[in-house]
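A further point concerns the way the authors explain their paired sequence and structure data. Nothing conveys this as quickly as seeing an actual entry. An entry of this sort, consisting of the sequence and the corresponding backbone structure tokens, reads as follows:
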Amino acid sequence: MMPLLRHQSVFFLIMRRLRAPFIVLIVIIATSVFGLTLAPGVDADGKPAHISFFHALYFISYTATTIGFGEIPYPFSDQQRLWVLVCIYLSVIGWAYTIGTVFALLADRNLQQAIRTQSFMRAVRNLREPFYLVCGFGETGRLICDALDRLGFRAVVVELDEARVGEIELHGYRADVPALSADARNPETLTFAGLTHRSCIGVMALTNDDSANLAIAIAARLLAPGIPALCRAESSDTAANMASFGTRHIINPFEKFAEYLALALHAPAAWHLLTWLTGVPGTAMERQRDPPRGEWVLCGHGRFGRMLAQVLEREGVPLTIIDRNAAPPASSARWVQGEGTGAHALEAAGVRRAAGIVAATANDVDNLSAVVTARELNPALFVILRQNHFANNSLFEAFNYDVNVVPSRIIAHECLAILTTPLLVPFLDDMKRHDEDWCGRLLKRLTGQFGWDIPAVWSERIDLSRAPALYRKLMKGATVELQSLLKSPSNRDDALACEILLLRRDDDHLLTPAGDTQLRPGDELLLVGTGEARREFGLLISNDHALVYVLTGTDLPGGWIWERLSRPRHEPS
């Protein structure tokens, strides 16, 4: 991979590569013209004459390009025709050398990369709307870009694999996605990709290489400390290194699912609510079974398996581990050495009396084989199935699992929750501190109103840029309650299909605030509802006419002239 260009353009790169052929052509033409002016000839009267420099240049110009000519200004002498014959062969050789060099240059990978780089830099430089920088277009990056496109956000992609970059054009995104095949570990690459661009609002390091993600995190921290950086880290050492220099959002998919499993074991309603709120909008979700208490079997004691084993033991769940390696000395769980895909090892682990099983190996086929065999031995098992590659999705969907662990989806959901809905994270943290009954009532109310399809979750801040109409009204001393805003701007008798989950004011958090709560300038709201309700709520907090209608029922006339005509007589102009 060639280094990226900083200041020079592709034009000057091409000219430098064609310097030798151009010099050869210039020398051939100059020699031909000079020789033709020296060659003796005759004029129309048969007197000795020499062709002028202008006529010689004109003749050589069209002769060198077409190999066809008329003798000007007079028929040539034998000496002139002999020299022209030499010039013809010289020009053929010169043009053949030049054209061959041009074809070789066009096939040069470095030049192609330079052209793509220049085009990419121009596209990024011309971006005017906010965008996210996505480093890595694997399974996770693809899910992120798909979700961002549905939500109306722009994305810029840096991916090392050229084949994956080529796939971006085949996805049919509503907005163009500038993409570059380059190493995101290079800070210069990130700069060209818009890391320091004024419209960049977030960067995501989503490659499958922890060292590359670490390099991206360092570059983001030093070059653009003001924008949020979300970094994937599958090893604890990398995560600790990222945290040491202030990376705020470090996502370990295995650790994140271990947290979800712990929550599901002691607070199933909170787990269902978290899963429903952090899904990708527009996708469907079915309520899952609550993870049962009882004995569990864990197939695979790798990086993911060790995290789950710690969670299950911490929750007091009796656990049997099946792994091809021998038990480590410090293990307190029951251990069966063998292959979890075989019925013998599963029988030895007590799968017939177990309540649940986790297939946690790094091999998708082994995981499917293990749970299929286990379900034959115990049809009532609660099955948690790890899927390593999204390409195997059709195989996994054919099996009736309870929970499917897809690391790319976990990371994508977490990134979207942090970047596009920053208030969702503090809401989920506060929610986990409430009891199971509170979470159950909230889940029942929300899913009863919106169904189990993933809803739209969004944040609004009452300031001059996000909610100008509402902000100006509050600054004038008006009293506005939350319940008065949840009405349709097209018909205030109809309630908006949304609810307010959180109100943040300074450092205070109000979960599911009461309808009579009065708003203040600077308040932040977390809402959940339909996409149509999101658009209508955005209209009424930003448009003075819609806000007045919702609050008072008065439908103000539109336009400056009608507003002046509708004012009371005593009102000053």
